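Our consortium's second objective concerns turning raw sequence data into structural hypotheses that experimental partners can test. To show how far this objective has progressed, the report includes one record in full. It was chosen at random from the queue rather than selected for favorable results. The single chain below, 354 residues long, was entered without modification.
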Amino acid sequence: MGEQPIFSTRAHIFQIDPATKRNWIPASKHALTVSYFYDATRNVYRIISVGGTKAIINSTITPNMTFTKTSQKFGQWADSRANTVYGLGFASEQHLSQFAEKFQEVKEAARLAREKSQDKTELTSPALSLTSHQILPSPVISSNGPGEDKLFRSQSADMEVTTERERIKKMLSEGSVCEVQWEAEFFSLQDNNNKLVAALHEANANVEQWKKQLAAYQEETDTLRQRVSKVAELEAQRGHNSLSEVKEASPALEELEQLVKAKDEELQQLKGQKGRCWETDEECEDTRQKVQNLEQRNVDLEHRLRLAEQSLAKTLSEREKMLHEVAKVAEIMDMKIFELGELRQDLAKLVESN
């Protein structure tokens, strides 16, 4: 009954979630009038906001309280007596600054009032106990929207209760363009926040998917590297074996060719001797047998020569085929490494954007 209004403004009221202590819970759907009051009987300052018949804020200001600006249009303070944290969303940064300045002034006045109360100094009137740092109870500022500040002055410190109630009801019932703007902005911010959360979840899911794909590419690259190393070892081993076989086969081929030539010469000599010499039937038969043996041996040597040439050609063909396979594996590995680089760049861009 003895409280006098000091300053009023309109704001959206929030209270901290008592369960999580992290999320804000709206105290009303629309902006409400928030006022500073001075209780002359108890010599205390309060922040009061009434919604309908319910007092949404009834916070006694103490010297150890602090009002914190958390954004350009939002501020908060903690009330240990009510065991909660109040948050106010204003229509503009100017309204927030006015409320914060008034909070600091009222807190200083509460500190001085507590010191005088502790000294047991009798106060005859609130106006007599105010210092240069305290707030006069007469000016009442109400901001109903940007550029619509209204100045209310109390006609008397002893105004009647009915007049005060009617004035508070009038203040609470006044419509405000700021209310509609704040409500639209609030729901727009909620929608944008939901969209950002959904985009963040989608980006996180894409990051996890790309990480799995990157791990699969790395595993595939390691497998290809192992295959290339094995193929290189086999190619080197086969190349060494083929060279050894060629080196070993070359002297054998030369020896066989020389042996064939020698037998051909011997055969020609025997044929010449057969035509020139008079021989007995036994000698002719013996010579004929030798010629047949030499011819058979010549055929065997030619067969062995053809087999050696076929083996050499097969070895060279396998070597060419192995070299072609190594080239294909190397080309696939280069493509995978290129894709891996592009994937790492996309992942780095995504991490930077997040």
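The partners drew two points from this record. The chain is about 60% helix and 20% strand. Residues 121-161, 172-181 have pLDDT under 50 and may be disordered. Both points have been shared with the crystallography group to help prioritize constructs.
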